Amino acid sequence: MEKAAARPHGILVAEDDAQVRRISTFVLSDAGYQVDAAEDGAVAWDRLQLKSYDLLITDHNMPNMSGIELIKKVRAARMALPVILISGTMPEDELKAHAWLQINATLPKPCDIVKLLRTVKEVLDATGDVTGPDRPPRSG
Q: What DSSP assignment string belongs to 113-125?
């Protein structure tokens, strides 16, 4: 009996820099992930209302809604969603003051592609498949 092929992990990338967003999306898609992108935290939040993901990768400094504000909304909504925060300037004070944000990894900008892919794999491996065999697959 053949084992069913595993579905690719779904990743939402929230990044306001169009070039960084395109490169990140391409690299992650090329690595076999199902990737959606949002140009800011507000658009990312809207996407999270419509579709579930296995991982959120977000920049911090974005217009309309920062990465930290997005993560606060995700946690307030009790979404079991691993998060990687990527930023040129890490909001260290906010991260220390809000440990409940449960950020799984942080990466400095500019981010090396190999390090990004390794971190994504590590976070997904550590958190496991959030849909799991007893939960329905994400829609979309």
A: HHHHHHHHHHHHH
The pLDDT of residue 7 is 76
DSSP annotation of 98? T
Q: Which residues pair with 85 in a beta bridge?
A: 58, 106
Question: β-strand 34-38 against 83-87: which pairing, if any?
Answer: unpaired
pLDDT recorded at residue 139: 41
Q: Please state the domain extents for the chain.
A: 10-125
pLDDT at 97: 81
CATH (one of 3.90.76.10, 3.30.10.20, 3.40.30.10, 3.40.50.2300) for 10-125: 3.40.50.2300
The answer to whether 42 touches 65, Cβ cutoff 8 Å, is: yes
For 92-130, write each residue's pLDDT tens digit.
888 788 878 889 999 998 888 999 999 999 999 998 754
